[in-house]
Amino acid sequence: MLFNTIGLSKYVPRDECNLPDDLTKEIARYKPIVEGIINASVNGVFKKRTWRTLARFVDKFGSRIAGSDNLEQSIDYMVDLLKKNQLENVHTEQALVPKWVRGRESCWLISPRLEKLNILGLGSSIGTPSKGITAHAVVVESFEELQKMGKEAVEGKIVVYNEPYISYEKTVKYRGYGAIEAAKLGAVATLIRSVTPFSIDSPHTGWQHYQENVTQIPTAAISIEVAEMLHRMFQAGDDILIYLFMEARNLPPVMSRNTIAEIIGHQHPDKVVLVSGHLDSWDVGQGAMDDGGGAFISWNALALLKILGLRPRRTLRSVLWTAEEEGLVGAAAYFHDHRNDVAAFDFVMESDEGTFQPLGLSFSGSHDAGCILKEILKLMRPLNATQFATPMDGGPDIEYFTNVGIPGAALLNANERYFWYHHSQGDRMTVEDPINLDMCTALWAASAFVVADLSVDMPR
Amino acid sequence: MLFNTIGLSKYVPRDECNLPDDLTKEIARYKPIVEGIINASVNGVFKKRTWRTLARFVDKFGSRIAGSDNLEQSIDYMVDLLKKNQLENVHTEQALVPKWVRGRESCWLISPRLEKLNILGLGSSIGTPSKGITAHAVVVESFEELQKMGKEAVEGKIVVYNEPYISYEKTVKYRGYGAIEAAKLGAVATLIRSVTPFSIDSPHTGWQHYQENVTQIPTAAISIEVAEMLHRMFQAGDDILIYLFMEARNLPPVMSRNTIAEIIGHQHPDKVVLVSGHLDSWDVGQGAMDDGGGAFISWNALALLKILGLRPRRTLRSVLWTAEEEGLVGAAAYFHDHRNDVAAFDFVMESDEGTFQPLGLSFSGSHDAGCILKEILKLMRPLNATQFATPMDGGPDIEYFTNVGIPGAALLNANERYFWYHHSQGDRMTVEDPINLDMCTALWAASAFVVADLSVDMPR
């Protein structure tokens, strides 16, 4: 790589940048282009277009879980839409994805009093027998407490986890492994407090794991409020009896597709700057936030550049991943299929933690690539979105690339409420704001364009 | 009344106070007593007691709608609890209350795509025929828009209201009268955007009205998100077909009870300072906020004073109203039954807009009574709850008294999120905070005690 060979960072501390003057000046010269992109998105021909296209999409299809006909129809729709927007090389690439089906589900507190509890079965959970499961419950706050309780107390029971929310990263293990740990002690089902800092009695679903040689038991999310209530009842010595019914089942994998569109580079058509989000969602709400917004700023960024007649040196490739929610399945297939092209990827981008007000980019990659990105972010002053953070946070699908040293970035945005809606019925279009989406599309288009058009590759 | 005869405000502007020095000094002398009350509630023997007793109550009974056996059992429980807390003259007084029963309910969007919609039927609504109603929908933002649309467009349709939220007071008319206005134009049912500024796909129920000579049609609340989605679909020209099923029905009124407990005044046992909240709730969530918190600070205020051995000159009476949600039904019966005792009521208090962090009191009544209350509120500095507002807001049941000139106050508290939970499944114990409840109980007990113990009556 040209840029790496000049060894610019040899005598510079790792947290400081010392880009060659020529490169700094080159980046600064993109100011009018970046302003044009921002202006078109925020005030011009593209104003509210990301919101409008996203609203139409999520209203038409609703939620889009991997393995569903609905997701496949929404992919067909996207292929048409990308072609209508004059994007290039529009096509799909196959990925075999899990097919988990929720079916009907219900849960009742029977003792100490009758109350229907709001639940959402967790992805990959098996169902209950057709008559449901009726069992007494024990309530714990942690895996440690469960272990202490021991097999005698847990066997034949429904284990309720009322783990406190610390952060998504730290707390999600209860959703992911709660059923395994309870089953090891003979539990017959688990109800897991939703992984969220805020609730209006709203359960949040998400993927969970089973382990070989550990009995698979049904598992569902309950709201913060219900978990806390059951915990209080348990501590008060109430006899807690719960009825759980779930039709959930895992069917054989089916073929799905990643959806791809490009603006082909005029100088290095084989070099790729990838911008992405995932098109699939959970089977609740509308998947407008997770990750409709990320997917739609990714293809609209290209559509905007196309309208403005901006074709960079390298190819800009928008990828709308499939089956992210079941464990980055679409991205894994894509990375596998392109395992011999890795050198072609100059830079990878994903937005999968909200498209609220954009603040900048979070980054993983080499020090020198980070320095270039910081310089590019200075151009985003009109958006007030110049923040640079590292490591990258919120680009799960592109970690296949960043893990092998390809520099990448995710959207930094004012997403303090992201986990309020995440994987819940509340992930609907109302969460998305037209002006924020315009600004996200602008940031996404401008930064991807500049990276793709620079005279130098992004240093590995 | 002694105080009124001295005419202290004759030459004082209405917004200024000029209390007699003796009275100002008298009020100031309550400082150690008020500090003792606050200290006992926040740090002492009563710490977390309001929260604990409320949690046990709402966990045991859950929601408590008027007309239900559950509400009556919860009233029996309260009578026992008030007696166990050594309160005096514990008894109930009858009130005939509506009995509306929700039954099962469901709603499906059939076209342009199939999706189960989260609804809550509105109180007093009739049900649908047993096969449900399937009809096309029209969506409006206001009554004006509905009128413009006219009978031809509305007849045979389900009217969806997607009214923007301005404030509860200004927006609630759509819940209250939406069915009437739609039925006048021949609509077969209405779905009304929930009256709330925030939602996680959460519908909010509440009372609604029918009008004589206007056909009664079923009516239910939908979430903000769904109302907005249906509106977008309607504006896009989609053919919206909805299936609505509701078993709701109005049964004959049944006898319920207001629950009363006292600390009898040592000098003027016939003069009453009333502190109150309502014990009934909607039939969703746990009724912990609306109005478990208000009811529980009201009787715990007396229990706290009793423990501290504080008996004021006048009688302190705690009233836990029944059937507030159906239109202040318990309070109306109580006021009617006490119509010849009105002179006995010195001051009335209610908390029915949350028991978040207390800020002070809102007040309705004479200028002079307001001046006394302002002076008393100065004693609440240790709680940082000295704010005085007027007119009173959040004391619906006691308006029967304030409307005839009896001074009254409601709890001012940091209730910015009150309507996020109000009448929804999210009105659960998780909303309530132990420290805030201690502080509310302290403010409630201290201000009620001082008013009840002053040498002068509250001026009318």
From TrEMBL, chains A, B:
This is Carboxypeptidase Q. It is found in: Endoplasmic reticulum; Golgi apparatus; Lysosome; Secreted. It holds the Pfam family Peptidase_M28. One of its GO terms (biological process) is peptide catabolic process. GO terms for molecular function: carboxypeptidase activity; metal ion binding; metallodipeptidase activity. Belongs to the peptidase M28 family. Gene3D superfamilies: 3.50.30.30, Zn peptidases. GO terms for cellular component: endoplasmic reticulum; extracellular space; Golgi apparatus; lysosome. Residues 258-446 form the Peptidase M28 domain. InterPro entries: CPQ (IPR039866), Peptidase_M28 (IPR007484). It comes from the Eukaryota.
